[in-house]
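Continuing from yesterday's entry. The apo prediction looked reasonable, so today I'm repeating it with geranylgeranyl diphosphate included to see how the binding region is handled. Same sequence as before; SMILES copied from the compound registry.
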Amino acid sequence: MTRLYNNILNAIKEGRKQLAVLIDPDKMPVNSIEPFVNKVNQSMATHIFLGGSELQNNTTDTLAKAIKNYTDSPLILFPGDENQLTNNADGLLFLSLISGRNPDYLIGKHIKAIPKLNTMNLEVIPTGYILIENGIETAVERISKTKPMLRKNTELISHTAKAGEYLGMKLMYLEAGSGATHPVDSEIISAVKSQIKIPLIVGGGIRSKTDLDKAYEAGADLVVIGTAFEKDETFFNQIINSF
Ligand SMILES: CC(C)=CCC/C(C)=C/CC/C(C)=C/CC/C(C)=C/COP(=O)(O)OP(=O)(O)O
Ligand SMILES: O=P(O)(O)OC[C@@H](O)CO
Ligand SMILES: [Mg+2]
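Holo prediction written out below.
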């Protein structure tokens, strides 16, 4: 089952840039789903991601079902832990936090997820997840108890991505962290892009169409935006379907 992944590869081949809107289950009441997803449908977004670093209420299941009622866009889980799995989505980013050295986030949570995953038919996409310093401490850093990679260590960051690719990861995700004050630098994006052949995802702190275009120009294949939509739904007007 590789439909979602093949679609990502095809879009890259055809030169179509991809954008995922991140929905944080704790910040999205079920009754807001319909209007929000309708806006996503009218925008240039190609994917919806669903997840949070730590969830207070486990509403992932209900929200996933509601989202699928209103859109044909692929819904991909982007979980901070194994409790956020639901069969109501299409796929799962099977993230390994390779910027850090916390065994739980490298392999531990993954093992715990297996009994549940065995009962589901999600498309599981092995994804290297690299947290980059952005100026403030983000939820991922706090929860995972790992330090982000320093911005100045561009070479180390790109070697980390390459090692992830050699380990068999199918996507690489450069993450500045949700709400980052400083998105991942173009220099880092292009250095990583030149090292790897697998699709490159970039997210964290992207708040304008200019930031978005900058990430694409540097080599991002898929960009993830959460906070800009949470804070100001008029942000959708900036990214109205332009293809
Ligand atoms: C494979 C499975 C089941 C789990 C993977 C678990 C790993 C390794 C996660 C990586 C580290 C992590 C905590 C990622 C969270 C990614 C995420 C959903 C970020 C967006 O959430 P935030 O916005 O940062 O958090 P808030 O919910 O606090 O806003
Ligand atoms: O909320 P923002 O800052 O857009 O970040 C999105 C995503 O990369 C976080 O995991
Ligand atoms: Mg968030």
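Comparison notes:
- Residues 3-238 form a domain with the TIM Barrel fold (CATH 3.20.20.390).
- The mean pLDDT is 96.
Will overlay with the apo model tomorrow.
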